[in-house]
Amino acid sequence: MAESFPFELVSPERLVLSEDVVEVVIPASDGQMTVMKDHAPTMTTVKPGLVLVKRAEGGEDTIFVDGGFADINDNGLSLLAEVAMLANELDSETLAARLKNAQEAVDVAEGDAKDIANLRLSDLEHVKQSLSL
Hints:
By secondary structure, the chain is an alpha+beta fold.
């Protein structure tokens, strides 16, 4: 069995999760990243997506995040998200509003900003598909 490590996910509104876990998959800016005990120290930005958490005591959580950053160090993993909520708390109306805002950002952006806005829109569309919302 894999060894556990401390994981904390915080948004500006609340502490979403603080537990010992055996594995966390995060939507890092360069692709999905799996973190386990003794992972190399890393800091990365987090894009919109789903965080998959395997708890040390059993069970799994899926958490929607929309931006932020993750810090992996000797003390575990800290994920500071701009927005975070358990996936079962995310409803189709909330996600539709985020998609609408992302599309509006694409419509007004130019140059590199348009590329970044399109990536965010694509990430949110992927969340919608993954959660069947």
